[in-house]
Task: structure prediction
Amino acid sequence: MDIHAIADDLDNWVTNHPWAKGGYVDPSSTREERIAYHSNKSSTNPIQQVREEILGLVEVMLGLKKRQKIVEIGFGEIGGTHRLFKQLFDEVHTIEVRNDVVDRHVHEQMEGELGNSHFYIGPSNDPDNYLNVCRAVVQCDALFIDGHHSRNIVESDWRMYHHLVREGGIIIFHDTIVDFEGEREVAGLVEDLSHGNINGRKHEFSHIHKSVDVGISYYIV
Ligand SMILES: C[S@@+](CC[C@H](N)C(=O)[O-])C[C@H]1O[C@@H](n2cnc3c(N)ncnc32)[C@H](O)[C@@H]1O
Result:
């Protein structure tokens, strides 16, 4: 599949999902507007991503030498990124604390969704979950970190799982434009990683920032 086919398929899925209304995340929206928008529970973005940002990431992923396995932290309400990654990688290993959202997806799979999913239910820093992922994956080509966004958890996600990514693979963070203290603190971690403040190495990040305050950042291992 090339980028145009993937974009068409994703647009079609996002627009026509039978019950998850709301489309992509509006790139011009602010966090406050999104909280107000979702508070009435009548809408849920099928994919919690800005279209131009996630398709920018797809282009980068299509350029990877190997696309066998990806580890994803955070499935989301409907699992839009999980579904997308299933088209790009042979195996998608997703860690998600909520079992209800994963159950819904498994049900959708029975209705014809691709079946190359592997799920680990529970917090990403749970020791059993961690060992199960490491034992099943051994080595992967990509790590997409989009689970809990507090500094300590996003940092421990990186510290625990980045070793799995092979040389030439990619490590990606979501929500990297701006931090909201105590709630979303990914941008600060990306800054610290790029300055060598975490493990003494200055990781060279690229940024796909095409919105007011969402954004994707990644580096190649
Ligand atoms: C922002 S959503 C992911 C959105 C998804 N990537 C998408 O674009 O559609 C974050 C998800 O991470 C899950 N989560 C939060 N903390 C977690 C943790 N410590 N371990 C695993 N999953 C977690 C939440 O339940 C939620 O489903």
Observations:
- DSSP finds eight helices and seven strands in the chain.
- The helical segments are 3-16, 31-38, 51-62, 80-88, 99-110, 127-137, 151-161, 186-194.
- The chain has one domain: 49-220.
